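Lab meeting, item 3. Inverse folding demo.
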């Protein structure tokens, strides 16, 4: 077993001096917690900064169409192709604004009968989506369970014994293959179903993103729960963690790897397979197909969307969020996974840059950079909190493997920190004990609630003030229109008097 996985590390002490030492177990868990804490602080700071910049923006426009006409053009454009793309973007913005206005007017004119029919349609669609997501989770559970209990030795007596290695690799990668396929197929179904729910264009985009993220995160959570339930109950106390032990026989039985290492291997396979699929779809499928269709199909034909594909910005950002979720979930079981994720992101970035520069068109629908960044950072924060659930459950409740890993001598992973605190100086122990007593927790909770109420009241007052400023701007705009109308009428009377 290499240092890439959990089973390599041992609960040893590296002595720096005769009295000072470094605990590998404590260092292991504190490194993971530090990375997660740093990620949480970075995400929270980004979301808070985005919310601060978006206060009062994106809700309503005072002069929507005039702003699109007179304030959307970039006067730094010096190329004809970029100017054409900017015109298409402005046209798409006009269409979206008109569609949202049409939806608002239609919503105001809906009768009770139409509302009931729409409620039934949306309830049916959401029921289908819930059933689809449940079916995806059940498929992942069955496939993962099959890959874990598959009897590899049954292939020894088969006539095609040379295919055993191929079967072993195929079955090992089967959960990752199924999850990757579902992540490609189900979002297409979600985009098709939301068209029948008659939402506004802006809400359609956000709601589809939320459903897609929920699909991907739930797939990972089902995978982790299946691995926990199956491996934790099937691993024997005398199991080994070496790679050679996977195929070696001891006492006429095949030794089983420690379950934490198997979890890390599954997530590592998922990261590798997702990278390979992205590269193959970009370089071996989309690129050759685009070149062929551009030479054989009319630019105005039905295959234009394939011959002239647009760069899907939202899908690529969701892929980055998904890669980060795999990293957050798997770094405890596969310490090298953050490095693999960094290399994956660098490789995918240059491949996507090649596709955008060579054969893809820029996205026709562009959104505000601040609002889009805030949306995806919020999605990343929710995904991060979801990824913490299986890891928190493992650290606090599950018993580590007794034959491998840095926590083999502890009842839980959290026991490492508890033992270190119990061996700390008396003053530190008393301070930490005081922080856990009701005498500290109750006043702290009360202070936090008071602070939360204060900042909520402050945000409400700021919102009211922002709305009043909007109304003042609207009244000033109406005054300007009234003065211009009066000026035109006076000039017409003066001109008629002169004539």
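The presenter then showed the designed sequence:
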């Amino acid at each position: 077993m290499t240092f890439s996985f959990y089973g390599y590390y041992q609960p040893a002490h590296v002595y720096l001096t005769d009295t000072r030492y470094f605990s590998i177990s404590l260092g292991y868990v504190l490194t993971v917690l530090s990375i997660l804490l740093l990620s949480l602080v970075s995400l929270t700071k980004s979301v808070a900064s985005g919310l601060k910049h978006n206060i009062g923006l994106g809700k309503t426009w005072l002069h929507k169409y005039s702003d699109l006409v007179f304030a959307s053009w970039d006067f730094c454009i010096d190329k004809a192709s970029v100017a054409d793309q900017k015109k298409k973007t402005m046209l798409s913005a006009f269409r979206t604004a008109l569609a949202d206005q049409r939806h608002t007017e239609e919503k105001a004119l809906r009768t009770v009968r139409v509302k009931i029919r729409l409620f039934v349609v949306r309830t049916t669609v959401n029921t289908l989506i819930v059933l689809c997501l449940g079916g995806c989770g059940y498929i992942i559970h069955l496939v993962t369970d099959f890959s874990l209990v598959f009897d590899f030795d049954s292939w020894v007596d088969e006539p095609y014994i040379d295919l055993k290695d191929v079967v072993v690799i195929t079955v090992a990668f089967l959960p990752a293959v199924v999850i990757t396929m579902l992540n490609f197929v189900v979002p297409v179904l979600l985009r098709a179903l939301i068209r029948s729910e008659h939402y506004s264009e802006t809400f359609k985009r956000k709601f589809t993103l939320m459903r897609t993220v929920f699909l991907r995160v739930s797939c990972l959570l089902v995978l982790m729960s299946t691995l926990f339930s199956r491996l934790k109950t099937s691993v024997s106390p005398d199991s080994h963690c070496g790679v050679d032990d996977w195929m070696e026989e001891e006492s006429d039985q095949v030794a089983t790897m420690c379950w934490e290492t198997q979890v890390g291997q599954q997530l590592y396979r998922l990261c590798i397979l997702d990278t390979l699929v992205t590269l193959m779809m970009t370089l071996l499928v989309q690129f050759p197909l685009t070149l062929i269709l551009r030479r054989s199909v009319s630019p105005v034909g039905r295959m234009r969307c394939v011959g002239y594909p647009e760069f899907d910005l939202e899908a690529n950002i969701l892929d980055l969020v998904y890669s980060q979720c795999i990293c957050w979930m798997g770094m405890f079981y596969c310490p090298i996974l953050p490095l693999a994720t960094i290399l994956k992101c660098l490789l995918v970035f240059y491949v996507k840059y090649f596709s955008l520069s060579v054969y893809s068109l820029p996205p026709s629908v562009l959104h505000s950079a601040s609002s889009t960044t805030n949306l995806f950072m919020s999605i990343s924060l929710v995904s991060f909190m979801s990824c913490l659930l299986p890891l928190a459950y493992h650290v606090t409740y599950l018993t580590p493997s007794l034959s491998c890993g840095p926590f083999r001598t502890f009842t839980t992973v959290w026991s490492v920190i508890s033992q270190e605190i119990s061996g700390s100086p008396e003053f530190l122990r008393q301070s930490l004990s005081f922080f856990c007593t009701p005498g500290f927790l109750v006043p702290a909770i009360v202070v936090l609630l008071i602070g939360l109420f204060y900042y909520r009241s402050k945000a409400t007052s700021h919102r009211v003030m922002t709305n009043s400023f909007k109304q003042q701007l609207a009244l000033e705009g109406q005054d300007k229109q009234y003065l211009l109308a009066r000026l035109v009428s006076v000039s017409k009377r003066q001109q008629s008097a002169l004539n």
